[in-house]
Amino acid sequence: MPRIARIKDPETIHHVMCRSISELTLFKNYKDKVKYLELLALYCEKFQCSILSYCLMDTHVHIQLDPRGSDMSKFMHGVNLCYAQYYNKKYRRHGHV
């Protein structure tokens, strides 16, 4: 069964949650969290989005995001793809994060 289509209202604020794959620690140290926040800032500037609040936990992330009419899916894809590449290179692994 397909998932329900995402509402794309430019006036809507979204709660976004991203998880790591099973039993993988997403942020092993403070530097990993800083890197993720740097990527959020970079992509916020690129997509003209606004982060209202966030919570970085060891295995997942919560973000309150105001996309301001930009494509939220592409925004999150960019952030998570870049972080996965960073993580895999740093911890000498490959595959999904």
Characterise this structure.
This protein is of the alpha+beta class. It has one domain (14-90): Alpha-Beta Plaits. It has two helices and three strands. It has helices at residues 30-47, 72-90; strands spanning 14-19, 50-56, 60-66. β2 (50-56) and β3 form a beta hairpin. α1 packs antiparallel against α2 (72-90). The longest helix is centred in the last third of the chain and has 19 residues, at 72-90. The chain starts with 13 loop residues before the first strand and ends in a 7-residue tail after the last helix. One of its GO terms (molecular function) is transposase activity.
Q: Helix-strand pattern, N to C?
A: EHEEH
Give the class from helix and strand content and strand pairing. Answer: alpha+beta
CATH architecture group name: 2-Layer Sandwich
- What percent of the residues sit in helical stretches (DSSP H or I)? 25-40%
| SS field, number of helical segments | 2
Regarding CATH, which class? Alpha Beta
Rg, alpha carbons: 14 Å
Domain Transposase IS200-like: 9-96
GO molecular function: DNA binding; transposase activity
InterPro entries: Transposase_17 (IPR002686), Transposase_17_sf (IPR036515)
Organism: Alkalibacter saccharofermentans DSM 14828
